[in-house]
Amino acid sequence: MPDSNQTSLRRAPRAVPSVPDLDPVIHQRVRLGILSALAAGGTTSFTDLKTVLDLTDGNLSVHARKLEDAGYLEVRKSFADRTPLTEYALTEAGRVALEAYLDQMEALIQTARPS
C-alpha cells in the first residue's frame, strides 16, 4: 500500500513534446560530426577529417560512404606530390538536409527545455 506522503510528492504529468521524424542518415554521431565539420570548414581531406573527429580509417570510410550514397557529400580523389589525396565536400543537398535536421533539433530542444 503506497504511503500517502509519497503520493502527494508526485508531479502532475507534463505535455510531451512531439519528436520529429529525424533524418536517419544524419541522426548518427559520426555522420552528424562529418557533416558539421564540412559545413564549418568547407572541403576537408580524409586525414584532417579523421583527426578532427578522432576516427579510424575504416570508421570514417564507412560513414562517409553512407553520406555519399545519400547525396549529402561528394568525394574528390587526386594526387598531391604523388601521394593519394581524398577530399570531402558538402553537397547542396547535404547542406539543406543538415539545416533541416538542425532546425528540427532546435525546435525539439525549445519544446523540451523548461522555461
From TrEMBL:
<feature type="region of interest" description="Disordered">
    <location>
        <begin position="1"/>
        <end position="20"/>
    </location>
</feature>
<dbReference type="InterPro" id="IPR036388">
    <property type="entry name" value="WH-like_DNA-bd_sf"/>
</dbReference>
<feature type="domain" description="Winged helix DNA-binding">
    <location>
        <begin position="30"/>
        <end position="109"/>
    </location>
</feature>
<protein>
    <recommendedName>
        <fullName>Winged helix DNA-binding domain-containing protein</fullName>
    </recommendedName>
</protein>
<dbReference type="InterPro" id="IPR036390">
    <property type="entry name" value="WH_DNA-bd_sf"/>
</dbReference>
<dbReference type="GO" id="GO:0006355">
    <property type="term" value="P:regulation of DNA-templated transcription"/>
</dbReference>
<dbReference type="InterPro" id="IPR011991">
    <property type="entry name" value="ArsR-like_HTH"/>
</dbReference>
<dbReference type="Pfam" id="PF13601">
    <property type="entry name" value="HTH_34"/>
</dbReference>
<dbReference type="InterPro" id="IPR027395">
    <property type="entry name" value="WH_DNA-bd_dom"/>
</dbReference>
